Amino acid sequence: QPPVFTKINPQPKRGSKLLKILVVVIILGAIATLAYGYSNKLWFFKRALYNTSKLASSIFAGVGNIKTSNYTLNIDVVSEPKDADAEPFKVELPTDQVKIDAYNKDLDTVRDLQSILMYLQAPYPTSLAKLETPQPINNPKITYSLVPGGKDFDLGANFETVEAREAAKKSVTGFFAGGDNSIFLNKDSGTYISIPDTLPQPQLASALNMGSYLSYIPVAFKLNATIDGKSAVNDTGSLNTDTHVTANTDLGDINVAVDVEIKKIADNFFVYVTKLPSFFIDITKLKNQWVKITPTDLSSGIGATFKSFSDVNSKSDAETKEKFKENINKILIAADKNQALISANEPVSEDINGTKAYRYDLEFNKDTLVSFYSDMTTALNDASTTPETIQSEKSALEYLKSPEFDKAFDYFRKNTTFSIWADANGTPIQVRYSVRVVPESKTSTPSTNQIKFTATLKLNDINSAINIDEPKDAMSVEDATIALSGITKEQYRFSKQLTNIRTLQSAIGTYKALTGTYPNTLADLMATRGDLKKKFGTPKIEPNIYVPSGTDEQKVLENIPVDVNSGAQYIYANKGTNYALSYQVALPKYVSGTVPSGIYTYKYETKGGTRIVMIVLDGNNTANATAVSEEADKQSLIDSDKDGLPDVLEDYIGTNKLKADTDKDGHGDKDELLSGSNPLGAGKLTGNMYSSGLY
Predict the structure, then answer these.
(1) Rounded to whole angstroms, how far apart are CA atoms 159 and 199?
(2) Distance (Å, rounded) from C-alpha 659 to C-alpha 471?
(3) Is the previous residue joined to 596 through a cis bond, with omega within 30 degrees of 0?
(4) What is the arithmetic mean of pLDDT over 623-633?
(5) Cα dihedral 385, 391, 392, 393 sign
(6) How many whole angstroms from its chain centre is CA 157?
(7) Sequential DSSP letters for 189-253
């Protein structure tokens, strides 16, 4: 009989059911946790918006996403009791005694050169042994030879330090040549050469030494400034901007408030002043009134303040912008190669005004700073790089390698924070920089205060449609100047016309000094110094001729002023060895009893003494390299009564050109005018506004 099997259904265990539920809960919890981590970019879901190995270029690319935006920049500076861990800061300089001793020897050489130049006069001696100086000069580092013909000389010197050579070059106003550590001078070099008494410190060290100049900030000092603005590209491709600046400075007993709005639309600026300290200028008559500043106004006067912001789309400006982009790219390549900019910690997700952003706390990589600086300067140097720039770079590099810089770097790393917040697209929406410095004490008592500086830039409405409207019924610069100064329209136009002519004379003189020739047209003055150097080479600067310093990208003249009376271009002609600049003047009506300042000047005679001359005449005038008005100079030679006042001036102020003492008080007309007395009667002359100082 086969066995019979009976199927038995076991009762389910209570524990196994609970286990299934627990597994489901764990799975659901893990999914929720992973979802939370993914949405908040945590753990292995964390996403770095920027490539940390190329942090500098990644951030710059994010900045490039911004075409238009509204922005707010808040700046706070406060002097307050120092924190317990705050320490005074002072830049320490490398003490290279060998270099200091070498520089001191160069200082002796320069002093000998100065003595030689002072006493070298034609006919020049055949050797320095025959030069009569208070003390015999026997310096083996100095060479001298007479040029064949005896009309010039070659004076050379060898230096032990490049710092001395470059300092000497800056002091010489005329001809200068030389190699790495040598210089050569001649009769066109002038009679002055000097260098500082102590070895110049690296420019980087000077820039870092904020503890020194911050010591002058009062103990009770607070500054709060807010700059609200927006920007948008207009139809011509240039940038329109609207900037509103409010600031309040508390100096303890003195409070200074500023409230100014500036708009730039196309090539015009509009200024609206609500508050401005009266010790700057009394703006009562311009309060709550827009003032329009045109490109023509930018050439001089009040409008010249905004000249540096001018956006002129010329060929040279386009080249300058392209060069700037090229240099930025070189800097970014060097920064990425050396990882010069690093994040101090992992990016942190934060909410910025309702936008999820990632905060990067940035700092320079101390370990690669030297190699970054070296790579950057090598990349930026080209054929136009000056020896002064290269020397400055060498000095900075030496300083970066020194223990003294290590101390300065560690101080700023401890007391400085620099953070940037970027949205999901990598576009920066907020930047903050703060630094804490305890100023260097100017007394034996340690400083008890610290200076805290914080700047926060917030961007919003990025790449949204932004409109910047042109103000209506804006006042012209001419009307604004008249309102501020109280002068008449004819006085303003006379002063502005004279200023325009002098501005053009100065620019023409600079052009001549840079090229060796006068410009063919006034438009030539819009060329950059770099363009002139390419076209004419580096000319020999005539001795005792002052040439304003400037970069290769800088124009000789930013804007060509136009005739105040006609609004047309001035008539100009190149005469070869001179030039002619024609213009008209309407002399303002003389106000009896006032000093006719700005109408006449003094001319120094070659035989000694001075004479009074009219600056310009009513009507047609011609300026050249030596005169504001040829016609005025010529007419000023006529003095019928021989009293020292030219007839044209006497006709203008109303004195009798046939009588030396018009009011018969025993004092000549010239003596009374120069002493401030009234040549037409009793009393003193009062000032006037012909030379208001506004131009």
Answers:
(1) 13
(2) 57
(3) no
(4) 94
(5) positive
(6) 34
(7) G-S-----SSPPPPHHHHHH-HHHHGGGS-SS-EEEEEEEEEEEE-TTSPEEEEEEEEEEEE-SS
Beta bridge partners of 355: 352
Residue 434 bridge partners (DSSP): 417, 454
pTM of model > 0.85 = no
Is-contact 161 177, C-beta < 8 A?
Answer: no
CB atoms within 10 A of CB 357: 22
Percent of the chain with pLDDT over 70: 82
Looking at the DSSP assignment, which residues form a beta bridge with residue 230? 70, 242
Q: Cα-flanking dihedrals φ and ψ of residue 3, to 5°? A: -65, 145
Q: What is the bridge-based pairing of β-strands 475-476 and 290-293?
A: parallel
Strand partners, 244: 228, 261
User: What pLDDT score does 311 carry?
Assistant: 41
Convert the pLDDT of each residue in 256-280 to its tens digit: 899 999 999 988 999 999 988 876 6
CA torsion 132-137-143-148 (nearest 10°) is 10
Integer CA distances (angstroms), 275 to 69, 245, 247, 302, 328, in order: 26, 10, 10, 18, 38
Q: Closest by alpha carbon to 569, among 610, 522, 506, 616?
A: 522
d(CA 115, CA 109): 10
- Residues 302, 271: contact at Cβ < 8 Å? no
Q: How many residues are there in the chain?
A: 695
Percent of the chain that is helix, strand, coil (3-state, to 5): 35, 25, 40
Q: How far is CA 556 from CA 287, 513, 548, 553, 572, in A?
A: 35, 11, 10, 10, 17
